[in-house]
């Protein structure tokens, strides 16, 4: 099992950062333009039971990624888990905490790539680098947008 964490400080109130994540178009906003990802549907907001379906392209092959929210503690955290997709396991926890008048946003992911015994030593670094690129982008967008809203 692999773990990934990315955290940043946003100069905006906790409630502002949470509400930004509740936007109906949040997935389109936070998907990096270089990623071959299509948002197919999003139902239920951030609540437990909410569903999100993506189509991701692994080269020319489209793969469905379906995730369900399994935890929601407004405005502190929500968790989604892959129920269908390219990973053998995927759990993504989004955490929001007050930090000296600002908001600490932390994304924590536990995941397992297929054929882990062979693929993790060979490709684990690559997946980690792609996650770091994606979450750097997501946090930069969140910071920019929320700091403008909170100003």
Automatic annotation (TrEMBL):
Gene3D superfamilies, sorted: 3.30.530.20
Pfam families per record: Polyketide_cyc
Record-linked InterPro entries: COQ10_START (IPR005031), START-like_dom_sf (IPR023393)
Domain (Coenzyme Q-binding protein COQ10 START): residue spans on this chain: 10-134
Protein name listed in UniProt: SRPBCC family protein
């Amino acid at each position: 099992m692999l773990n990934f964490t990315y955290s940043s400080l946003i100069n905006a109130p906790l409630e502002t950062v949470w509400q930004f994540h509740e936007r109906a178009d949040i997935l389109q906003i936070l998907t990096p333009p270089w990623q071959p990802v299509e948002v197919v549907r999003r139902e239920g907001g951030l609540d437990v039971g909410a569903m999100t379906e993506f189509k991701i392209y692994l080269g020319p092959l489209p793969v469905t990624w379906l995730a369900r929210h399994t935890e929601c503690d407004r405005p502190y955290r929500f968790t989604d888990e892959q129920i269908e997709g390219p990973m053998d396991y995927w759990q993504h926890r989004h955490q929001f905490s007050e930090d000296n008048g600002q908001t600490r946003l932390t994304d924590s992911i536990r995941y397992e790539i297929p054929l882990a015994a062979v693929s993790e030593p060979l490709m684990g670094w690559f997946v980690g680098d792609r996650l770091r690129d994606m979450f750097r982008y997501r946090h930069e967008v969140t910071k920019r947008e929320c700091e403008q809203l909170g100003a």
